[in-house]
Amino acid sequence: MPRSAKRWNLIVAAVAVGAVAGYAAYVRTEWNYLQSKRGIKPLVTGRSSERVAHSDNRNFKSRVPDWVPLYPGTVPESLSSSQAGIEHYFDVQMRTHDHCARVVDWYEKKLIAAGYKTYGRFDYEDPTCTSIVQSDGPNFHRSINVRASGSSSDVTISVRAIERQVTGGATPDIPKWVPMYPGAPPPKHLDAAPADDGAYRLAFSFESPDDPSQVYVWYQTRLKKLGFDARFEVNPRSAGQFFSRTADNKRSFNIHNYPGTPDNSFVVEVIER
Fold this sequence. Notes:
It contains five helices and 14 strands. By secondary structure, the protein is an alpha+beta fold. The chain is 23% helix and 37% strand. Helix 1 packs antiparallel against helix 2 (24-37). It starts with a helix and ends with a strand.
């Protein structure tokens, strides 16, 4: 399986865990089924702009906060954001041929120069390398944690940036054409990643007290006006699913739902190319 497909499986599972941990296995299984049918492929346009943001990794860079350092010679491969109370989490993943220790050495120097206090440095190699460093900014308003791991020539860099005393922060874009269900609050967790086939994939979740069939009929009506072929399957007090795509297969919008109390949870997968 391509590396991007594996990464996307993890992304969708993470969104499901953020909503209801026990349902993550179901969502991942359904997503694998969708991928096997090859009926879903993506591209994203910003909600604040009419310009289409094609699935080029360079577009991800513009979504990264300016206070989060990106390792030289890399471009973001995936983004994730979530809000938990007054803390906003932003995750970015990159890839490099440099050794893990060299990567974390660079980050440690960069963070110290920016006024951060670093701690928790860890380096390990047997036979693959792993290096970690954590840091807190002045007044504990921000933290940046870095992990580099992989082989001697293929290292994945994972950066988690945390901002406190805020009600929001940087997020991946939701496509402008994506309908947001009435009454549902803005998504607190979003994940985005490009694929090897040129697709852009976005996942998020929302909750609603409405019956899934009511939610799906609303989406079916809205998406058909946008040229989508849409269908859904629901069962009382059980999991359901909604599939839709355009005739040219350039856009797909899929939902999986599972029952909850008092609200039902819905995991959305947006795909465009």
